[in-house]
Design a protein that fits this description.
By secondary structure, the chain is of the alpha+beta class. The protein has twelve helices and 19 strands.
Length: 406
């Protein structure tokens, strides 16, 4: 008989051993216990067989900017299974418990970084924004004439750094808020050095970087003004005499338009007729995946918070394929008027929209458009004349950005 319960002091060591076995090089025992104890938004849960811990996970509670509306979002990471207990459905059982945990707290959306995309697709998660890993010469960054506002930042600036990040968060769809706990305030200095743009007592942009041999790794790059990115870019450009390339992970594919030469210099792309000599720019990785655990509940939450969905006006009957939700949560009707939800009811609809929960989750987050889902046969609509209106309701100005590692 197996049961899931929260991990406490007596089982920290067992979880660390489990996590280290699943994620070599993690060294969970060196940092996990103190981190969990001083961070109330994080918890550990284990699946026990008698006294033995056979699987575990780390859960999070985030505040997310969902296209200018703040909502609570659950997160899960460090999902680990004992090597002797794989292929027993333990990970599946923990994820279902994670769903129920968030539903009990009134959360309607959860997210994670997948260890296996197909596994989480089967669990109802949809793809988010991809991660672009750039390998560029420092000289590709713009070389401006000024950097007088730049300075090395230190412990005295940690609250200013956090304030800068949170101002960017409030403007950026998909980002999560950071809170002024000691570990979060000190976090940038645990990963490298920080150069910031300081003006009028505020940090209006900063770059967190780390040099490794001939490579300069950028762990964070945030800015609020054109002047800030221009001076930070000048700083990066001027590192060309020491570093061969700058490596940065980002959800933004439009960074290529800022660089003078976005080629990586790697000869890894295969040319196929009739195209020739396509230059390699970036490596592409899977980013965060999202899962709506209560479709109607999420839309009701956004309705209560006066969230705007585009500008279209129509009544849609949603039929979402999801074994987790009851019919009232996945089959429902909602009326939009100029992008605002007016009511939920069962009257005559303009059109019926059908799709799987994984696609619905991606669409709600703005990671994929409704027109794309229709194009690839991943959604159906009973009245095709309303495709553009449904597209308008769920299209976001930008794809979701997630800068939180968890």
């Amino acid at each position: 008989m197996k049961e899931i319960r929260e991990i406490n002091h007596s089982t920290y060591a067992s979880f660390c051993s489990l996590a280290n076995g699943a994620f070599p090089g993690l060294h969970a025992d060196q940092w996990l216990q103190g981190h969990i104890e001083e961070t109330p938004s994080e918890s550990l849960y284990g699946l026990f067989k008698g006294k033995d811990l056979v699987a575990g996970m780390r859960t999070f509670l985030f505040e997310m900017n969902l296209n200018q509306t703040t909502i609570p979002v659950g997160g899960v990471g460090m999902l680990a299974v004992d090597l002797l207990h794989k292929k027993e459905g333990n990970a599946h059982q923990l994820i279902k418990y994670f769903y129920e945990l968030n539903k009990s707290k009134g959360h309607h959306l959860v997210m994670l970084y997948p260890f296996n995309v197909s596994f989480y697709k089967r669990m109802g998660f949809g793809m988010g924004t991809q991660v672009y890993q750039y390998y560029v010469s420092p000289s590709s960054f713009q070389n401006g004439s000024r950097k007088e506002h730049l300075e090395h930042l230190n412990d005295e600036d940690k609250e200013l750094i956090l304030d800068c990040y949170n101002r960017v968060y409030r403007k950026t769809h998909g980002m999560t808020k950071r809170f002024p706990i000691e570990r979060e305030l000190n976090r940038p200095f645990n990963f490298g050095k920080v150069v910031g743009f300081k003006q009028d007592g505020q940090v209006l942009g900063y770059v967190l970087y780390e040099g490794k041999g001939k490579d300069l790794y950028i762990h964070e790059l945030f800015f609020e003004t054109r002047e800030a990115i221009e001076e930070l870019s000048t700083f990066l450009h001027q590192q060309a005499n020491q570093f061969k390339r700058i490596i940065i992970n980002s959800n933004d594919d439009d960074l290529i338009h800022f660089l003078s030469s976005p080629e990586s210099g790697m000869d890894t792309i295969l040319d196929t007729a009739p195209t020739v000599d396509n230059k390699h720019m970036v490596n592409l990785g899977v980013g965060v995946m999202y899962r709506v655990i209560d479709c109607k509940g999420l839309l009701m939450e956004l309705y209560e918070k006066k969230h705007r969905f585009g500008s279209a006006s129509l009544t849609i009957g949603f039929e979402i394929q999801d074994d987790l939700q009851g019919d009232e949560s996945k089959n429902f009707t909602v009326t939009f008027s100029r992008g605002e939800i007016q009511r939920f009811h069962g009257q005559a609809v303009d059109t019926v929209v059908r799709m799987d929960i994984s696609e619905f989750s991606s669409m709600v987050m703005g990671a994929v458009t409704f027109r794309s889902l229709i194009k690839w046969g991943k959604a159906e609509i009973s009245n095709p004349t309303f495709v553009n209106q449904v597209h308008d309701l769920f299209q976001t100005p930008e794809r979701p950005v997630c800068t939180k590692a968890f």
